[in-house]
Every structure is written in C-alpha cells, then in structure tokens.
Design a protein that fits this description.
It is built from 12 helices and 12 strands. The chain has 341 residues and is α/β, with parallel strands linked by helices. The longest helix is centred in the middle third of the chain and has 15 residues.
Length: 341
C-alpha cells in the first residue's frame, strides 16, 4: 500500500464501544456474488479485492460483511484481503449472524434464527472464514422469527464478548422495544438500521433512542442499493442479472421507481454547488443526522468508491437540507422525516 494515497477521512466514536471509525465504511454485501436469494448477480473476486485495497488506501478503516452474504463467500473474500495486507494496516471487521441458509436450496430465503447454540456455531464459522481471532463488531442480522427470547440470544452474545471472541456487540434491523430488552442485559454498542433519503423511518425512532443511550449507528443502504447514484436509470433495472434481488424490490418498480429517481435528480444541484457527486450527497445526508456514526457504502470495483468517498468530509448546509426536504415532499419518494433535527 502506498502511504501517500491515504486520505484524511472524518471519524466518529461508535457510541461508547471504544472504536473510532471513519464515517464511511466498505460494505461487502455485493461482493458475496450471486446464486443466493439476496445476491447482486455474479461478481469477480479479484475486482472485490482491488476494491477493498482501494478503500483502505483512501483511509476507510472498517469493512462490514455478514455470514449470509454469498452464503459465506463474502467473509471468505474479506479473509483473503486481510491476509494480503500487513497487520498494522488491517481495518476493523464487522460481521453478522442470525440468517441460516439451506445448503440444498441456496435460493431459498434464509431463516431468521437466534438460538444461542446457533449464534455460537455461526461465530466460530465466521472466525474461520475471516481468519481472525476476534470479530471487532458482531451483530444480530435480523430479529429471531422462531420464538427465541431476545434475552437468551443477547446473553449468548455477552458470553462471546466475555470470552474474547467478539470486541463490540450490536444488532441490525431491531426496533426500539428489542433494543431496550437487550440494553437491560448488556449495553448495545451499535445498531445497523436501513437509512437513506428513501427509507427515513429510523430517523424518528431508533436513531434518537441510540443517541440517548450512547449506542452507535451505522446505517446501511444509504444510496438505496444504487438508486441514488449518479448514473442509475430505469434501463439499469431491465439489465439486472436474473438473480439480482433488486428485481423483486418495490423501490425498483413503478410507481416508486419514478419517484425515487426524481428525488435523485433533485440532488444534482446540491452536488454541483459542492463540486461532488449525487452519491456523495445522498450519503452525507444520512451523516447529517444527530446520532448517526457512519454509513455502510457498497462497492464492487475501485472506481465505484471514488464516486462516494467524498461524503465523509462533505458538510451539507441548512440551505442544502431545506432544498432536499422540499424535494422529498415534492416527489413523494419514500417514508419518514424529511430532514435532520
């Protein structure tokens, strides 16, 4: 790695966890490839490795993945990347558990299972795939759907922390009630909610709760899985791979698609004023919310990172936020509050 290429990116503390992370992180969902129910189509592993190298060269200090991404493949590729760089340059690695897939039917939707014995088994498998001795942030991917009390699940997470297998413990896609139940047992270090200009609901509930309780927030899909990027258009939807999960998403179909693209187009003037990309503006909007620590941004190539890396140091003005709020109201895109506090 060439030290001269490292940028100075903004950082924030991840709640009270002791981790100081860059305000944008590398999301490794898409690099898991296709062939499973929430894949993004085929992906070249060498391109994935180059993308992660570029992310770290530009100063990003964490990667977010999950066991289910590519049914283990994303973690394996991240593990390959970690072995290619000196330990002193290794980014923090965040991963998730709780989605159990069927090896006999990879296209079946994974089950949301948080039984204590399942959590432990998944943790050991992730440690092996990543090639690390400790996971920097381990997260429950979704609430359990088979009746496991969250207290039992979170209790097992606490034991993994006590044993040194996990440094910080978090959850993803949890509502305030579940957060409170976990918090009563052991502090929740972080929450990973969906949060973007289109999916804004967490801004009215989970994010304020997290700010009050010193729980970090790393939002996922801040560019709404590509919808809020500069070059996205309706033709791209038609060109999606057959196994690209976005084909089935309502946000990529009429009438929502047209509203979402109209909102994306409205960001162009803000981007032009700041000399940056629409993608960067979309990510920076999530970072403007009090309580948000950072945003997970996916990339499948080094070139894609260049499009949004500027979000880390982009500060939207009151006039920018007012203009964006007016565009949300005008287009009718998405749900949730129109602007940060």
């Amino acid at each position: 790695m060439q030290k001269s290429t490292i940028m100075t990116l903004s950082t924030r503390p991840l709640g009270s966890s002791g981790l100081e992370i860059t305000t944008v992180g590398f999301g490794a969902w898409a690099i898991g490839g296709g062939g499973w129910s929430f894949g993004w189509g085929s992906q070249d592993d060498d391109a994935s490795l180059r993308a992660m190298h570029r992310a770290v060269e530009l100063g990003i200090n964490w990667i977010d993945t999950a066991a289910v991404y590519g049914l283990g493949h994303s973690e394996e590729v991240v593990g390959r990347f970690l072995r290619q760089i000196p330990a002193s340059e290794r980014p923090f690695v965040f991963t998730k558990c709780g989605l159990i897939w069927n090896d006999q039917d990879p296209m079946a939707v994974p089950k949301r299972i948080l039984k204590p014995e399942s959590i432990r088994k998944e943790c050991e498998a992730s440690l092996r795939r990543l090639g690390v001795e400790r996971i920097d942030l381990y997260q429950f991917h979704w609430p359990d759907e088979i009746g496991t009390p969250v207290e039992d699940s979170w209790g097992e997470m606490v034991r993994l922390v006590e044993e040194g297998k996990v440094r910080a413990a978090g959850v993803s896609n949890f509502d305030v009630e579940l957060l409170q139940r976990c918090e009563a047992i052991r502090h929740v270090d972080s929450l990973q909610p969906p949060f973007s200009l289109i999916r804004r609901d967490a801004g009215a509930s989970q994010i304020p709760w997290c700010e009050k309780h010193r729980t970090g927030v790393i939002c996922y899909s801040p560019m709404q899985s590509g919808l809020l990027t500069d070059r996205f258009d309706a033709k791209r939807v038609a060109a999606f791979a057959e196994d690209d999960w976005r084909r089935k998403s309502p946000e990529f179909q009429s009438p929502r698609l047209e509203k979402n693209l109209a909102l994306r187009d409205a960001l162009a003037l803000v981007a032009k004023r700041h000399g940056t990309s629409t993608s960067a503006v979309a990510v920076a909007w999530t970072l403007a919310w009090r309580g948000v620590t950072a945003a997970i941004v996916g990339a499948r190539s080094p070139e894609q990172i260049e499009g949004w890396i500027g979000a880390s140091n982009l500060r939207l003005t009151k006039a920018d936020l007012d203009e964006i709020a007016a565009a949300i109201e005008r287009t009718g895109a998405g749900t949730g509050p129109f602007r940060p506090q």
